[in-house]
Design goal:
By secondary structure, this protein is an alpha+beta fold. The protein has 2 domains: 182 residues, Nucleotidyltransferase, domain 5 (2-Layer Sandwich), CATH 3.30.420.10; 55 residues, no CATH class. Helix content is 38%, strand content 21%. It contains 8 helices and 10 strands. The strands form 3 sheets. Strands 1, 6, 7, 8, 9 and 10 form a 6-stranded mixed β-sheet that branches. Helix 1 packs parallel to helix 8. It is globular and about 50 Å long.
Amino acid sequence: MLGSSITRLFFIKVVEGTRRKKFLSDEHFTVDGTRIEAWASMKSFRRRIQSILLEKIPEAGGRNPEVDFHGEKRSNATHESRSDKDAWLYKKSSGSQAKLAYLGHVLMENRNGLAVDVEVTLASGTAERDAAHSMALRLNGNKKRTLGADKSYDASEFAENLRDLKTTPPISQRRNGKSVDGRTTRHEGYETSQRKRNLVEEIFGWAKTVGLIRKAKLQGRANIDWLFPMSLAVFNPVRLRNMEAEA
């Protein structure tokens, strides 16, 4: 835990240095999450001992899938990895393959696409919105802001929680989504936020190809909570270097 605290402090220092150089927006942000594949084999995903002996089944909702592996249904409610107990079975979207994973979350400022906050969670179905709300709470000051997100964040309760924080939620809508309405979509800023939102994929792309988070070669949430912030603390200076070279 000490290692992850030191890494987070280092990340914060990098962000503060970037802010002093006037590269960060303090009004417009984007949030997103990515799957960090765990360093654990599916063969290690076995029935929980307590579910066998005590018939005690923990809750697991959202995108926590139930998957049939050779005739045996396995889910986070009844099974766990023997090599990494913090890794949960998760799939990013319907139709994708379920894997043992963690989730890494990023709060990005929209001016230059730099990471300003990070969080690591267990791979539950509500983790993205929960982490987004936590990072929104950590934004300083009372200035009105926008916080864009993709369709996986399209939930009325989440949008209302952001509005309570004086934060406009330009969230991409599902087909029957109700989290945003004309109050948000009629403004030109909604389309701008949707365009800027794509910059967060550059952060995840770099972190997975260079920052070693595609499949973390570490086990346990504490270690992932060290790796992910460290990766993004390196990303920001690299992006700034490239921006200054292009200027």
